[in-house]
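Budget justification note: compute hours in this period were largely spent on complex prediction jobs such as the one shown. Inputs:
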Amino acid sequence: MAKIWAIFRKDLLIELRTKDTLNSMLFFGVVVLVIFNFALESLRDTIRSAVPGILWVSFAFSGTLGLNRMFAAEKENGCLQGLLMVPVDRGTIYFGKMLAATVFMLVTEAIIFVLSLVFFNLTVWGEIPYLILVFLLGTLGFTAVGTLLSAIAVNTKLREVLLPLILFPVILPILVNAVEATNIVLNTPDYSALRLPLTVMAVFTIVFGTISYLLFEHVLED
Amino acid sequence: MNENFQPRLDAVLAIVLVLGMALALYMALIGAPQETSSGMGDLQRIFYFHVPAGITGMTAFAVNFFASVAYVLRRNRRWDNLALSAAEVGVMFFAIVLITGPIWAKPAWFVWWTWSPRLTLSLILCLLYIAYLLIRNYIEDPEKKALVSAVFGIVAFADTPLVWFSIRWWRDIHPSPMLETGGLGRSMRPAFWICWAAFQVLFVFLLRRRYYLESMKCEMELLEREADAVH
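Corresponding output:
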């Protein structure tokens, strides 16, 4: 546990000093919001029903950008070698990295969400606790498999280009359910329907968390 | 030469395949009675190719999964060769599914495509295994390539049921499995099973050919490396 924390803290410190990843994630997320505003011009009056989709596309795009940086920075400076030499289980590295990616994504999501309230003129108060739960579960599922695939992508010739190609088909269940759950919270009065999408997201996170934990060491091998 | 090559078995397979495919074509296009109960007529005959291709494609992806697991555990290149061959053949069969589907759907449903669960699942499966084949192109070290794609093969197969559980409550207008519901008339069953068997033989045949090809590539690589070492 302490080892996971150490790796997480390392990534967080680097990020706090440079702010490279967060800045680019945030900027890209906002740009996506703005583009959707133009793309869905004709839906202006009923935009609230489209907001769950817009939000999650924006989260997924900015999240992919963040995941790409998780290993790219270390690959460039040969730091990955150092990290691999640390006498810890490779699975520990996975959880540390996943935790860092999750925190980066959640921070970005919070800001993108507040901006979307402004851009799309939404009012939410009572929905916020439920939204936090949905965002948290969706993000955990995203980073659970995303961290593994990011480690795969940095090993290839294409590096950053490959990640979205292999990530998005796999991540589909999370996106579908997260959009569904966000839609239930924002646009329907009955929250009991939330149970199903939340369960699928939780199952996804557990299944891919386990698979990634078990397979991560093979991917990082050199 | 690789000891796995069994030219005699391949020749037998090829003969069975040619005869089987000819019989399947005859049964599907002429032998089976014309569909009358829902007014589809001859249009229904595409079913004899669409469904067996789907079943065969699924079989191929399952083979890919088991070969991927075996590779991670055993680290024998043969498993990787098998996994790659299965993925390629599987994508091809799913391409048949995704091409014959819309051809049938346009006159039957009046649309080429609809986001019904079965259609969505087939498309996503196809995308997942195209992604699997994509990764392989961009890793040079053969050991690394085999390992990384085995990991992705496992992830892709584990994803399949989750995709299904995420979308299964979407409105489905795709016909439900005919054999389970008994919707396939008794007189049509021989044609279906012959087509099914012919596709299975085609699968085994293609898988073996592709596997040989990959094994030979491996041997080539090995020999080239040895030659480089000598010089």
